[in-house]
């Protein structure tokens, strides 16, 4: 039998993407999985629309698959986040199937890290899977993506997590342009060498290899790793949490693998900088570096960041405006202050 996988998807005001992702999941060549969908305090009609889709009342159009009503309806088991500890094992056992959907309704937007953690805790306690899969709602998956990930994950107890080859959902009309094929993390600069990015796929990234980092848009992690390493660090809220998670997994002696035979397509956002993104990307960079870098690495990082400061400032002012730039400055301040208070805390 295939190992059991709990697939965790986070939705926040993005039901159009979510139903396309769900429809692609229903077509995969893998039988042993549950879907746990977390609505992270959406303020639009996301929950209503997702339930309409599950009842078979909404046709999903996509260039990646043909919609089918044959696998509808999906039974939706709904829970508010406060009631998850009241769910009985008997109820879960009866509902656990790929034709059912566990829908957790959060009262507010907890951010990417904590939103996923709520689902991870639910799945760990109630579903008892062998693997957890974090999957962005703005992705579409290949029918063999999960089978290929699990196959590699099963080859060694030393493998803690694996991730797929990620294509752009639409790169100037093309579907064969790579966005992610593994990444090297540099703790001297806080930057990373991202392999395959913007390359047309001609087979040049078809080797399985060890990677420092797996994108949180599709990350398969073993149950024992979650039990040993813990979950995502909620203080990040958004951005850098999966990098932190991957480093923590590696620090426990596990290895990560990029699996090119597993393929997904990601709607990588292309937009002007926002205040929240500028703030959290900047603040969390400092939190991450203080947490994981050695003193010499952190010192060099500060020097490199200082050299880049003028360029970053001008870029944000030009592309985002004064409000975005002020959020960037606040991110620097809060990141440094956070480290001054909590800098002695080390990774788990």
Description:
With 348 residues, this protein is α/β, with parallel strands linked by helices. It has two domains: 5-266, Spore Coat Polysaccharide Biosynthesis Protein SpsA, Chain A (Alpha-Beta Complex), CATH 3.90.550.60; 275-342. The chain is 39% helix and 21% strand. It is built from ten helices and 13 strands. The strands form two sheets. Strands 1, 2, 3, 4, 5, 6, 7, 8, 11, 12 and 13 form an eleven-stranded mixed β-sheet that branches. The protein has a two-stranded antiparallel sheet with strand order 9-10. Strand 3, helix 3 and strand 4 form a beta-alpha-beta unit. Helix 1 packs parallel to helix 2 (46-54) and helix 8 runs parallel beside helix 10 (322-342). It is globular and about 60 Å long. Residues 343-348 have low confidence and may be disordered.
CATH architecture of the largest domain: Alpha-Beta Complex
Shape: globular
Q: Give the structural class.
A: alpha/beta
- How far apart are the first and last residues' alpha carbons, in Å? 33 Å
The chain-level mean pLDDT equals 93
Count of discrete structural domains: 2
CATH topology category name of the largest domain:
Spore Coat Polysaccharide Biosynthesis Protein SpsA, Chain A
The low-pLDDT segments are 343-348
Query: According to CATH, what is the class of the largest domain?
Result: Alpha Beta
Q: What is the number of beta strands?
A: 13
Write the H/E string, N to C: EHEHEHEHEEHEEEEEEHHEHHH
Approximate strand percentage: 15-25%
Q: What is the number of helical segments per DSSP (H or I, 4+ residues)?
A: 10
Radius of gyration over C-alpha positions, nearest whole angstrom: 20 Å
Share of residues in helices: 25-40%
Main beta sheet strand tally, sense and closure? 11 strands, mixed
